[in-house]
Design brief:
The protein has 14 helices and 9 strands. The protein is of the alpha/beta class.
Length: 293
């Protein structure tokens, strides 16, 4: 029995050592990568300098065209991330501030994301390779239910989120294989002629006083970033458009631009404009907030 216990202990020790080594190897790769995504672009950078940055979900990623800002002489990057919630937008801005980014204006898309304070697994996972190398990331995740497993168990996060930060993504990062995520200064145009779902029902969504939006406001105040928060357009065939009015009752400072682009021909799906719609919308934003530049 004693021999059996010794054998099991040795196997467990070897397994633990293997997990530690794999954790170190994967993390080392991510610490030297900056070509595949927006999180690593920020984490592995220093002192970025922008006139305008854009934060939010796909409704930021697909709706703001940096090229048009730059024609006005405004150095711009779209850090919107498809699937992101305000949880991730707040953390990304914290990392920029920590890295002494010089930012004149932050444009934040905060509309449908106001209704929850949850993390987006698909985007939050992109921060996890750095959780032992950043107190900011560690603290941001510290209240999540699975924090102890993610932080204290070696290699657990890479197994749990294998499809997002596992072997395939690590390998592509190691060989510096780029993606199109950083193309067009972070803007992702929707150019397919085939429309997606042109019906939507958002009556079940209820905006709340959102912890992470409050964090973003505080970060901007502390670092003297000018914050412009907007709500972006949806197609006309939406049930529950009074959501945007409800959001404005909680946060009157948010600019409701939901209806500034009209016509289904400008939409790829009910919640996302196509490239033509995004360009029309971006021109409205520039004229409204930067018209005197």
């Amino acid at each position: 029995m004693q021999k059996f216990i010794i054998v099991v202990a040795r196997i467990l020790l070897i397994l633990l050592l293997l997990l530690v080594v794999l954790d170190w190897a994967y993390t080392t790769v991510y610490l030297h990568s900056s070509h595949r995504g927006k999180v690593e672009k920020v984490f592995n950078s220093k002192a970025g300098n922008y006139d305008v940055i854009i934060l939010g979900s796909s409704r930021a990623n697909n709706h703001f065209v940096p090229e048009l800002f730059e024609k006005k002489g405004l150095k711009t990057f779209n850090f919107g991330m498809s699937g992101a919630h305000l949880f991730e937008a707040s953390l990304l801005l914290k990392l920029m501030a920590e890295r002494n980014y010089k930012i004149k204006t932050v444009i934040l898309e905060a509309d449908l994301g106001l209704c929850n304070e949850k993390e987006s697994d698909a985007i939050a996972a992109k921060f996890l390779p750095y959780i032992h190398h950043s107190e900011t990331i560690k603290n941001h995740f510290s209240n999540q239910e699975n924090f102890n497993e993610l932080y204290y168990i070696p290699f657990y996060r890479y197994i749990d989120f294998d499809a997002l930060i596992g072997f395939r993504e690590m390998y592509h990062s190691a060989i510096k294989q780029p993606t199109n995520i950083l193309d067009h200064q972070g803007y992702h145009p929707l150019i397919s002629k085939k429309q997606g779902n042109m019906k939507n029902d958002i009556r079940a969504l209820k905006p709340i006083r959102n912890k992470y939006y409050e964090e973003i406001k505080q970060i901007c105040k502390q670092n003297k970033y000018n914050l412009i928060t907007v709500m972006t357009p949806m197609c006309t065939n939406v049930k529950g458009l009074d959501y945007f009015e409800k959001a404005n009752k909680i946060y009157p400072e948010i600019h409701n631009l939901e209806n500034v682009v009209q016509g289904d021909r400008y939409f790829s799906s009910c919640g996302h404009m196509n490239d033509a719609g995004a360009r029309m919308f971006t021109k409205v934003v520039i004229e409204k907030f930067f018209g005197t530049k």
